[in-house]
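#struct-queue
[09:14] JT: dropping the first one here, sequence first, then the structure tokens:
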Amino acid sequence: MRQGLIIFRFQSTHMKRIIGSIVLALAISLSVPAQSKSASPAGGDEQMIRNSMNEQLAAWNSGNIDRFMGTYWQDDSLMFIGKSGITYGWQKTLENYKKGYPDTAAMGKLDFNILQVKRLSGTYFFVVGKWHLTRSIGNVGGHFTLLFRKIKNKWLIVADHSS
């Protein structure tokens, strides 16, 4: 297999850390054989991530954005990519959610379909899915990719790309 080298030039320390983590996780995923479902014990890491996402769903649908953000890494290096571009930091991401969804009518009822949960390493998972908001002001939806990282024995979202 021919290996290629991609060189990136970044100005932001936060961006360097996030991209470095993503590149490392992807490199590890390419070098480690895929694990079978039987290799994950019941209630294992994948189930913990699915449970975390179900907690998000319940928090959103109860109108609680603060609780919804509990599944995100509470750090300035958190990266959220949406229609307005890239946002860094947990606090700024929370503020953007509250600005974009100021009340339960704007929030609507969230539903999502997880299309793939892939272990990249012992400390990273990659999740792909579709989201949908049912709202009286008009339904919206799209896709998401999430990078989960195990931090202090808890799976947290360190990068979110939702469109």
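[09:21] JT: and here's the second one, same format:
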Amino acid sequence: MLTVDIIGFTAATCTTVAFVPQAIKVFRSGDTESLSVLMYTTFTIGVALWLYYGLLREDAAIIVANIVTFLLAFSILAIKIRNDFFTKKPPQS
């Protein structure tokens, strides 16, 4: 494996692993109140574009990292949308 590949996989691992604690917290608690739907929408689109870019370049580090990150981000976004738009909240007094 080339040094550039090691750097790419190390960077991909760091950025993907950094996202995991947020995903675990949302999956366990279901709490997305403090998350921005606009931010997660934009982030998920960005990750999908990085994945597409990696596919076009045939870059395994970019592809693997962004598949994992996309699945996590999309899941969080889906929970956020469900919580914000499809879950009835009690009226505030």
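[09:30] RK: nice, looked through the second one.
[09:31] RK: Residues 59 and 76 are 26 Å apart (CA to CA).
[09:31] JT: good to know. Helices lie at 3-29, 37-57, 60-86.
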